[in-house]
Design brief:
Chain A: InterPro entries: CheW (IPR039315), CheW-like_dom_sf (IPR036061), CheW-lke_dom (IPR002545). The complex is a heterodimer of chains A (156) and B (241). By secondary structure, chain A is mainly beta. Chain A is 13% helix and 47% strand. Chain A has three helices and eleven strands, in the order βββββαββββββαα. In chain A, a hairpin with a 2-residue loop joins strand 6 and strand 7 (88-94). The longest helix of chain A is centred in the C-terminal third of the chain and has 11 residues, at 145-155. The model of chain A has no long low-confidence stretch (mean pLDDT 83). Chain B is 16% helix and 43% strand. Chain B has helices spanning 23-32, 38-43, 46-52, 73-83, 162-165, and strands at residues 2-6, 9-15, 87-93, 97-105, 110-118, 121-126, 130-137, 141-144, 147-152, 155-161, 178-186, 189-195, 197-205, 219-224, 230-234. In chain B, strands 7-11-12-10-9-8 form a six-stranded mixed sheet. A five-stranded mixed sheet of chain B has the order 13-5-6-15-14, with no helix packed on it. Classes of the chains: A mainly beta (156), B alpha+beta (241). The A-B interface holds A 36, 38-43, 47, 49-52, 55-59, 87-90, 143, 145 and B 121, 165-168, 207-213, 216-219, 221-222, 224, 228-232.
Chain lengths: 156, 241
Amino acid sequence: MEQEKMNDRKVIVFQLADEEYAIPVQQVSNIERMEPITRVPQTDAFVKGVINMRGVVTPIIDLRTRFNLPEKEYNNSTRIIIVHVNDLEVGLIVDAANDVIDIPESMIEPAPEVIGTIDVDYIEGVAKFEKRLFILLNLQKVLSLDEIDELKKVEG
Amino acid sequence: MKAYHSGNHVFIEIVDDGAGINKQKVTKKAIQNGIINEQEASSLTDQQIFELIMESGFSTADQVSDLSGRGVGLDVVRNKIESLGGRISIDSTEGNGSVFSIQLPLTLSIISVLLVDLKKEKYAIPLSSIIETAIIHKSDILSAHHKKVMDFRGTVVPLVDLKEVFQVETNDAQEDEYCSVVIVRKGDKLAGLVVDSFIGQQEVVLKSLGNYLSNVFAISGATILGDGQVALIIDSNALIK
């Protein structure tokens, strides 16, 4: 077995549309199947509502909507990934949870900057590893309400 | 120090055997600071005098330092206790010491609510803000300057359609002949919340929606019902202007 190196990053890999995203395993507390969601009115479109996570009311956001991807019906492979960021506990709806892998730190590159695309700061980097391309997310930014507020102002 | 619980409250008593509270000094100081005037001072009961020491800006300290003697400490204590729904009272005998009794609710989180249906969704309205419920005929709904109102025992009460406020999906155009209304109060203002039907009264455990959803309009929290479903608790104060 390959020795785990200190400079590896352990990540949870999940699927959204055709791409694979990765988030640090330390921030994930559990992965659940879909549960009935109670809608919370007058919130952002990507806030799907709240669920009863073993007695704890947990907000749920749909990452597809958050990343402006077309919505998709939930199916058997749809998962809710419960993440902890600072003092926030939030569930993320993803198409599927694929893998737990170690990505060597050296494989991680900053997000490619292309002219004409909106700079999204929730992408921490990309990693090409074992013929797969992973997009590493900065969850703090994904969940940050400030940025969303700013987006609203720009769109507004 | 003594602590015990009785009913729904916890009582904490802190007893000291110090000098006690000097009533004359307290009243004199209170008059000096403008908290009360001399007329009021003469009619105060012992209890009221002791409560003066918890007024904001009150201090009997002769020496004022950076921190102490500013008259903040006990004021903060009282505010904190009252914000938790508790009470503090003081009793004292000069020369024998003082007793501080603190009374706190045992739990902050169990409240009585009325569960209502809005289509397929369930919401809870705290009983503390409800005056009564009514089922009224469509023809009893009047219009005052394009706002729906109803006549409630002689007073005109504005109606709030919760399905509109909470953007509940409604697909059927046909409407019932009667509507269910929950009349709620904020101060001396009334409002009628229109719902689909009443489910019943229940004691529920109040839970927060988490830090991520801290500021949802007209929702003060959530609760988990017997079947595991999450129901949102309506903050009716936000619905009354």
